[in-house]
Amino acid sequence: METNLKDYICTVPFSDVNVMENKSEYVCCKDWMDVDIANKDKKGTGWTSKTAVEVRESMLDGSFKFCSTSACPHLSTVTKSNVPVGPIIKREHFNPKLYNESGPKNIKFSFDSACNLACPSCRIDFIRNSEFIENRTLNILNDIKKDYGTSIETIAMSGYGDPFYSKAFFKFLQDFDKTAFPKLSRIHLHTNAMLWNYLNWEKIKNVHSYIKTAEISIDAATADTYKVVRKGGNWDLLLKNLKFINNLPLLEQITFSFVIQQQNYKEIYDFYKLIKSIVVDKEIYFLYYSIQDWGILEPENYQKMKVWDKTHPEHLEFFEVVEKLRKVGDKNVSISY
Question: Which residues contact 142 (CB under 8 A, 6 or more apart)?
């Protein structure tokens, strides 16, 4: 039965803003949308812009006209299963009071691209720390404090680079000023975990109480695959760091993400088993989603990576591995492609 999206509302545009490195502000992840929803009028903030209002209206009228049902992992799951997931809820459960005109409750820092890895799914080469990137990030952070500091309750960083590698983000964590964010209750780290070790953790002591959740991107279950899909990474060091992270008492929940592609799909099930064997003291979730074409992949390479496509020569093998994982019956596993 086809899902009627008019029965649902996505709450993200009413509570979240995603800030990019060109200072564009999105009330959703721009890669999950079919059109550019950046704030173009530049009047006030992206939160109050005409574009943001139009996106919210598309949720209220049930059209979802800006959204990609294939790229958004939440919307993709709903359209296939007719079951609410993540921020997408039944319309009758939506509370209009969720929206605060003064600013977002949740903000995602996606404006620092500096990273210690060069994953082919994300970039064509390493993007190192530089004076330009650091200064740009610090300037945007100052704007965020000024525009949204009093409304923000959660911060997510970063999903584009790595918060432990970025000089500006790491400095932000080291010198965190809680008076600038009086309502803040949580900082969510999205990291490759290569630099999440005891030494660096001790350097950001003053934010330990805020860091309750994290997402760790790995994309592999073996050292050989890891060095291909996570260029610049060290498998043994990663496993060592995961054991350290498992023992952090204030960290409550971890999501482990896996970008599905031709180079790693055979390890989908093995990845699940590996993480379950290492991380035993946390609430854990698994997020598997297909690699997206963000304009950095050659068309022929992207087609080769799309093992979920029915025309791909390995698509039957892919579905067999996915079915093996689904048979485990773990409700904390989400797979979208």
Answer: none
Q: What are the tens digits of pLDDT across the range 207-263?
A: 999 999 999 999 999 999 999 999 999 999 999 999 999 999 999 999 999 999 999
Closest C-alpha among 319, 256, 308, 261 to residue 287 = 256
| Angle, in degrees to the nearest 10, between helices 235-246 and 268-278 | 50
Q: 284 forms bridges with which residues in the sheet?
A: 254
Q: Find all residues with CB under 8 Å of 95, minimum gap 6, and list them.
A: none
Rounded Cα distance between 211 and 231, Å, is 27
How far apart, in whole angstroms, are the C-alpha atoms of residue 185 and residue 176? Answer: 13
Q: Alpha-carbon distance 273 to 284, whole Å?
A: 12
Distance CA 101, CA 105 (A): 10
- Tokens 């979730």 correspond to what residue? 285
**Tokens at 67, concatenated:** 């959204």
Give 43-95 pLDDT, tens digit per residue: 456 898 888 899 999 999 999 999 988 778 888 888 888 888 889 999 999 99
CA dist 211 to 176, 190, 196, 244, Å?
12, 11, 13, 15
Contact 158, 169 (CB under 8 A): yes
Sequence letter at residue 95:
N
Residues sharing a CB contact under 8 Å with residue 48, sequence separation 6 or more, in sequence order: 101
Tokens read off for 4: 């009627």
Give the Cβ contact number of residue 236 at 10 Å: 9
